[in-house]
Design a protein that fits this description.
The complex is a heterodimer. By secondary structure, chain A is an all-alpha fold. Chain A has 7 helices and no strands. Chain A has helices spanning 4-31, 47-60, 74-81, 86-100, 107-116, 121-137, 141-147. The two termini of chain A are 37 Å apart. By secondary structure, chain B is of the alpha/beta class. The chains are: A mainly alpha, B alpha/beta. Chains A and B meet through α1, α3, α5, α6 and α7 of A and α2, α5 and α8 of B.
Chain lengths: 169, 548
């Protein structure tokens, strides 16, 4: 004889099929909502600053056999993220002004020096733009899906967890 | 503006629609009692949740003028203050179901040790109830809402008999379990109120990993779908949306007689009448309402002649530690989403190793993100930039593990919520001031929490991401506030009896986390549900027998 609990569960299984199907459709509807990307309008950075942000972020995470920060338009993420943070806008802007004076070929070495002096203005600028580049790039489709191979946040009928025999026991 | 005062006298008025208020409403209405609920917000529409919006679309959608559901209370809408040097994060959700829309869902029963310790160690007052009192209610709650977990009970983690199947551990979690076992620590299956199979007619989880954004199929417990919808179906429940409760009103004899609230949109003042009032607005807001409920009969706030309400605020201390498992560095990325959050838990163990400690109570450990996440924030702590950094991040991405201990903070008299001399909110009601710091006991426990996390990572031969020893997450960030309207047997030292009924005001109850005299090392929602069920059973009984 079925227990009351089993009876409830099997009844639930029947009534719930449509709900589960809806979840799948709902997922597809949300995932497919990607309208054609409209051009991004900068909130505070000037066109010259946007260009330079793109170049510096590309030095932090360059294109290899996978896209780099410039392909992922990390400069747009940075402008968007700092839109109501005047303090960090000013810090970033001042740093960009300093690095703009360095010839493009010398910028990587300028950043290396900056990275070694975390307590200086240059060092803080390096940390700021590195952190923002990492946030922007690794949340972009190029960085997260193409570079890191993430294909999550999706509908799974089952979650298997770790299936490697060598990790058990 | 004229105050709106409908003449109707309700059986019971409940302030708040989260786990506590939802449980009370569900349990009272099914016993035929009429309930009026005041909800400070409105219903969140599941169909509008952004559960499957990809990280790269998220901010671009907002930039294009779209808005995800606004779960969290805007501080302009409802401010609070703290001393400048002691900030406190107060996270609140106003709206149908409250924080259960977005909660962490970790569902750990308090053990007999948790209930008995304060009586044993003398800090600060004993719980008036024990595990045996509450365990039948844990049983009922788990069967009602559905909680997954293993059958791997521990001294500090009892009661696995009604669990749904637990989700299997991810690779990093399996390796952590193995490593911990090597140093004598037992990591068990996690326990959460997530449906790993269909349960009581509700859909099961589809492992999208986004529980923190709400569930679009309601596969985890939330008060709105699991408690309030069935309660509404009885025809006994009325919910007023956007009703921001300000004060509990009382009659000449000092008994509760109703609630004053303000409409969140129009700011119109209303006063509703009830025979019984249940406060369940979550710890800090409940406390504020009670302290603001001043009258000739209750000059210090309703039910507070003993100056207990607002004091003994307690919570938990926590921090994060990250590492990379050597077996997983450089391996192929998998879909590690599973249930949003970790699938494992390390129950409190510090009573077992025979060591004498110079602090009271203890900590348990959660693990948070494991494996492929929706970002690579850890990369900020890796040195350098360029191709080297990009390669270093890629190699470590599948190998990430996180350790996240929660330690109990003792209730102390000086940790408190007050409303004296604070500014008014937009409705003219004094806001809360939260004064909260950790003490000597926590300062002695925290190094051991660090040692525990580090020793597990070392046993796993993990590469440990640089951390600052002693760093703590913001006070309040555990969102497990307790203690300010505590229950106890001694009416001089507590506000409520073991049934959440005010010692001084027999028709007034407080059934949320504020009623707990200790914070424990655990997540409280399961216990709040059990305590609120028990309290509302008692209330229904008292009403039926004519005592209330």
């Amino acid at each position: 004889m079925k227990s009351r609990r089993q009876a409830i569960q099997s009844a639930a299984a029947l009534t719930l099929l449509p709900v589960v199907a809806n979840a799948q459709e709902h997922h597809q509807a949300q995932a497919a909502s990607g309208k054609p990307a409209r051009p991004y309008k900068a909130k505070w950075a000037t066109p010259a600053e946007m260009k330079l942000l793109g170049e510096v972020s590309e030095i932090i995470i360059p294109k290899t056999d996978t896209p780099g920060a410039a392909d992922a338009r990390v400069n747009e993420f940075i402008d968007y993220t700092l839109q109501s943070d005047r303090k960090r806008q000013a810090e970033l802007r001042a740093g960009l002004r300093r690095i703009a004076k360095v010839k493009p070929a010398g910028r990587a070495s300028w950043l290396s020096h900056a990275a070694e002096k975390p307590d200086t203005a240059d060092g803080r600028f390096f940390t700021l733009i590195k952190d923002l580049t990492i946030d922007g790039y690794y949340q972009s489709q190029q960085g997260l899906a193409q570079e890191l191979g993430w294909h999550g946040n999706t509908y799974l009928p089952e979650f298997k967890g770790c299936t490697h025999p060598e990790h058990q026991g | 503006m004229q105050v709106i005062r409908p003449p109707q006298v309700h059986d019971v008025i409940i302030i708040g629609s989260g786990a506590a208020g939802g449980m009370a409403a569900w349990n009272l209405t099914r016993q035929g009692i009429n309930v009026l609920m005041l909800d400070a917000g409105a219903k969140f529409r599941r169909g509008s949740f952004w559960t499957h919006v990809k990280p790269w679309d998220w901010w671009r959608k907002i930039d294009a003028g779209e808005r995800p559901p606004q779960f969290y209370v805007d501080l302009h809408d409802s401010p609070y203050e703290t001393p400048k040097e002691h900030p406190f994060d107060l996270i609140r959700v106003w709206g149908r179901g409250g924080k259960t829309n977005v909660w962490g869902r970790v569902s750990l029963r308090y053990s007999d040790h948790n209930f008995e310790e304060p009586a044993r160690d003398g800090w600060e007052i004993p719980w008036p109830i024990r595990y045996k009192d509450i365990s039948p209610y844990y049983d009922k709650v788990e069967q009602l809402i559905g909680v997954y977990g293993g059958s791997d009970d521990q001294d500090f983690l009892p009661g696995s008999k009604y669990h749904l199947p637990p989700p299997p551990p991810r690779c990093g979690e399996r390796l952590l379990m193995k490593a911990a076992r090597g140093i004598g620590l037992k990591i068990v299956n996690g326990r959460r109120a997530v449906l790993t199979r269909e349960h009581n007619g509700r859909a099961r989880c589809h492992y999208c990993g986004s529980c923190g954004r709400g569930c679009d199929v309601s596969a985890f417990f939330n008060s709105s779908d699991y408690l309030l919808e069935p309660a509404l179906q009885t025809g006994k429940l009325t919910i007023i949306d956007n009703a921001v409760a300000a004060r509990v009103l009382n009659d000449e004899n000092g008994l509760a007689s109703g609630v004053q609230y303000f409409d969140r949109n129009t700011r119109q003042e209303h006063q509703v009448k009830g025979r019984i009032v249940i406060v369940a607005a979550s710890c800090v807001d409940s406390t504020r309402i009670l302290l603001n409920s001043k009258s000739r009969q209750h000059p210090n706030g309703i039910g507070n002649s003993n100056d207990i309400v607002g004091r003994y605020l307690c919570e938990q201390v926590r921090f994060h530690m990250y590492g990379f498992m050597p077996e997983l560095i450089g391996t192929a990325t998998q879909n590690d989403d599973g249930i949003g959050g970790e699938h494992i838990y390390l129950p409190r163990y510090n009573h077992k190793d025979g060591r004498k400690r110079d602090y009271l109570r203890g900590f348990g450990m959660q693990f948070w993100g494991c494996g492929a996440q929706m970002n690579a924030t850890f990369g900020k702590k890796l040195p350098g930039f360029g191709v080297d950094l990009k390669t270093a991040i890629k190699k470590r991405y599948p190998a990430l593990v996180a350790l996240h201990p929660y330690g109990e903070v003792l209730p102390r008299r000086e940790n408190r919520i007050t409303v004296e001399g604070t500014p008014n909110d937009r409705y003219g009601v004094p806001i809360s001031r939260i004064e909260y710091t950790i003490g000597e006991n926590e300062r002695k426990m925290i190094p051991e929490m660090y040692d525990a996390a580090e020793s597990i990572l070392r046993a796993a031969k993990a590469e440990i991401l640089p951390f600052e020893r002693g760093w703590l997450d913001n006070m309040g960030s555990a969102i497990h506030e307790h203690g300010t309207v505590r229950m106890g047997a001694d009416p001089k030292r507590s506000a409520l009896n073991g049934f959440c009924q005010f010692h001084e005001v027999k028709n007034l109850f407080c059934v949320d986390g504020a009623a707990f005299p200790t914070a424990t090392e655990k997540n409280p929602t399961l216990s709040i549900l059990a305590v609120a069920w028990r309290a509302s059973d008692y209330l229904a009984q008292e009403m039926k027998s004519g005592k209330l």
